[in-house]
Amino acid sequence: MGGLIVAATFSVVAVVGGTAFLGPAGTLIGLGIAVLLFVLALYFGLLGAVGGAIGGALKAWMVSRRRVTG
């Protein structure tokens, strides 16, 4: 959730700053940056969730194996 908040903040800065410095072209560039930031935040958030799930499953499997054999 924190990554999306940061992406939203930087997106607003990119759009407003791009518009202020470059006009309409800056708005389009800022919107492109905003979309890219949101896609990256969601992508890496999903990768983190999947990695955490795999790591947790491996840890649980190793702990259960240790109890059976040890």
What is the secondary structure topology, with strand pairs?
Elements: H1 2-22, H2 24-69
Helix pairs in contact: 1-2
Keywords: Membrane, Transmembrane, Transmembrane helix
Transmembrane segments: 28-58
Task: Give an account of the 3D structure.
- The chain starts with a helix and ends with a helix.
- It has about 70 residues and is mainly α.
- It has one domain (about 1-70).
- The radius of gyration is 21 Å and the shape is rod-shaped.
- It has 2 helices and no strands.
Q: What is the gyration radius calculated from CA atoms?
A: 21 Å
Overall domain count: 1
Q: Which percent range describes the beta-strand content? A: under 5%
Uncertain spans: none
Q: Alpha-carbon distance between the termini?
A: 40 Å
Strand tally is 0
- Provide mean pLDDT, rounded: 86
Shape: rod-shaped
What about the largest sheet?
A: none
Order of helices and strands: HH
Helical amount:
over 70%
User: What is the assembly state of the chains in this entry?
Assistant: single chain
Count of DSSP-assigned helices: 2
The structure class reads mainly alpha
